[in-house]
Amino acid sequence: MTPSDEEYVHFEECLTRLNHAWRIICELEHADSNSLVWIAAYQMAIIEYAKPYKESRGTNKWRYIIPTPELDDTNRLLHEKLLSLRDTFLAHSDLTIKDAKVSVVSIAGNPKPQIILNTEPLMPPLAEVKALIESTLEILYKEIPKQEANVVQSHHYSE
User: Fold this and answer.
1) 23, 25, 48, 78 — which has fewest CB within 10 A?
2) How far apart are CA 27 and CA 48, in angstroms?
3) Cβ–Cβ contacts within 10 Å for residue 83, how many?
4) Alpha helices of the chain — where are they, by DSSP H?
5) Is the overall model pTM greater than 0.85, yes or no?
């Protein structure tokens, strides 16, 4: 695969991941939000959203990351929050965001540690994440002709 081909594959993969995130959220809009499966699917949508902005290794280039699109302040902050959630909570298990508290209590005269607080971070509203994904896709869809032209040019295609 040529470097241009690999770059194009990465770009298309980013679009696929963002579309998966959008499709998951569309299905969740009509599902029971109290379900554990709903929670898992929402978390997966956020992971899918974050994938284009995290390292992807290639053969011709060691590291691909799609640039963050130009977003308004509200969407930029949401974008950063989603990437942080992915890094600290969804793909890892950082204790720093859980605000855990431990207390030692006596049970039948024996001291036992108990976790009395272990807060998971609040997830952003579904509608806001959906709107961010739609804005991002709209920006990236405008890049498709340029991406395609780069590949065609690298293959020296002529009619």
Assistant:
1) 23
2) 15
3) 16
4) 3-28, 36-50, 73-85, 126-141, 144-154
5) no
